[in-house]
């Protein structure tokens, strides 16, 4: 057990000296949780095998689930990747710094613990100013999965990290809410065609706008048994209560929600509903029903920013069951759908 140090910083106006101790902890082999523009990450220098292994121990993370390496300048690619194709350079020019992770062949020096024994490595350059400064001061690539217990909703606020990891790691840097709210897009560039392994803030449409229409495969076109990137295989993002993901036209879904909530209330269950602002009129919060909004249905980015916080609020309230309305699968809404699908254990209910 550690007496975890909590360092609070303003992401828009902070003294770089405030991060010096965190960088020292990383360089000497400790673990530090820090904000990125997507979710908070749990970092360790990639060349310290014991530190990287400790990430898996602290999180309770399966050993065959690869990590993402975070860098602060594009020149570090040459230190990590065995080869950098032209497509990677084009995408880096357009989307870095930002929520895009690229999978490339790795150099032998990259420890197997980082890549879960795969011959590839996932790399990204985050845009969050605190992450950039911490990585600059550390001056070594840092492996950093989400800073939560494995399987739990990812942390988008420092308070989420404190709940999960306080007492388990040396330091947590709390910079308030993150921006994008869902993890980075993971794009595999080691196959014949680029393929999205995990949807995120950089959407399929955005990638094809750069690489060309019809050039990028989506997760639904991929059939593999071993995870090549985080979030591909295991149940993720799950709140404590069982979650049912509902899809279909708006009115049939609302009718199903009302009927199900009424039935479950009569059975003495406390229900949580995750839906959109325009749905709330039918479900005012009561002692037995808690409504959690993903914002406007027409604004996918709002739902992405709120999602993980809403899932954790369900735990705080203590609901017995959660009914979640599937988002429109456009833009970053595809990433929100992906996370809810995982939280529901890979099941979706079509309501007609």
List its salient traits.
352 residues; alpha/beta; DHBP synthase; Rossmann fold; ten-stranded mixed beta sheet; 11 helices; 31% helix
Helix and strand arrangement:
Layout (H helix, E strand, L loop, with lengths): L4 E4 L11 H8 L4 E3 L6 E5 L3 H11 L8 E3 L6 H4 L5 H10 L4 E6 L6 H4 L4 E5 L4 H10 L3 E2 L14 H8 L5 E4 L10 E4 L6 E4 L5 H8 L31 E6 L1 H17 L4 E5 L13 E5 L6 H18 L3 E5 L7 H11 L5 E3 L1
Parallel strand pairs: 1-8, 2-8, 4-6, 5-9, 11-14, 11-15, 12-13, 12-14
Antiparallel strand pairs: 2-3, 3-7, 4-7, 5-6, 9-10
Summarize the structure.
This protein is of the alpha/beta class and 352 residues long. It has helices spanning 20-27, 49-59, 77-80, 86-95, 112-115, 129-138, 158-165, 204-211, 250-266, 300-317, 333-343, and strands at residues 5-8, 32-34, 41-45, 68-70, 100-105, 120-124, 142-143, 171-174, 185-188, 195-198, 243-248, 271-275, 289-293, 321-325, 349-351.
Largest sheet entry: 10 strands, mixed
Approximate helicity band: 25-40%
Across the major sheet, the strand order is: 1-8-2-3-7-4-6-5-9-10
**Low-confidence sequence ranges:** none
Name the CATH homologous superfamily of the largest domain.
Answer: DHBP synthase
Overall structural class, as computed from helix and strand content, comes to alpha/beta
What's the architecture of the largest domain, going by CATH?
Alpha-Beta Complex
Order of helices and strands: EHEEHEHHEHEHEHEEEHEHEEHEHE
């Amino acid at each position: 057990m550690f007496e975890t140090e909590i360092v609070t910083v303003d992401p828009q106006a902070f003294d770089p000296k405030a991060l010096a101790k965190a960088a020292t902890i990383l360089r000497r082999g400790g673990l530090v949780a820090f904000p990125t523009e997507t979710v908070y990450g749990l970092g360790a220098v990639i060349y310290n095998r014991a530190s990287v292994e400790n990430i898996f121990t602290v999180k309770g993370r399966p050993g065959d689930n690869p990590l993402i390496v975070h860098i602060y300048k594009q020149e570090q690619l040459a230190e990590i990747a065995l080869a950098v194709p032209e497509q990677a350079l084009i995408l880096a020019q357009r989307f870095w710094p930002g929520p895009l992770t690229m999978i490339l062949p790795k150099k032998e020096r990259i420890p197997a613990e980082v890549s879960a024994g795969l011959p590839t490595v996932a790399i990204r350059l985050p845009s969050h100013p605190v992450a950039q400064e911490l990585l600059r001061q550390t001056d070594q690539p840092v492996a950093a999965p989400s800073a939560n217990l494995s399987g739990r909703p990812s942390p988008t606020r420092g308070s989420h990290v404190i709940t999960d990891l306080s007492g388990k790691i040396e330091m947590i840097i709390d910079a308030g809410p993150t921006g994008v709210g869902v993890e980075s897009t993971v794009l595999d560039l080691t196959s014949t065609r680029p393929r999205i392994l995990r949807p995120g803030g950089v959407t399929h449409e955005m990638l094809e706008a750069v690489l060309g229409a019809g050039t990028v495969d989506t997760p639904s076109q991929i059939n593999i048994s071993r995870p090549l990137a985080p979030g591909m295989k295991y149940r993720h993002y799950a709140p404590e209560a069982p979650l049912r993901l509902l899809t279909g036209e708006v009115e049939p879904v609302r009718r199903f929600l009302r009927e199900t909530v009424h039935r479950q209330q009569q059975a003495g269950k406390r229900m949580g509903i995750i839906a959109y602002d325009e749905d709330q009129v039918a479900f005012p919060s009561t002692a037995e029903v808690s409504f959690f909004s993903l914002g406007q249905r027409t604004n996918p980015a709002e739902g992405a920013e709120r999602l993980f916080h809403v899932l954790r609020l369900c735990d705080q309230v203590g609901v017995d069951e959660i009914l979640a309305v599937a988002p429109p699968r456009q833009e970053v809404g595809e990433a929100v759908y992906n996370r809810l699908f995982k939280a529901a254990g890979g099941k979706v209910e079509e309501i007609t």
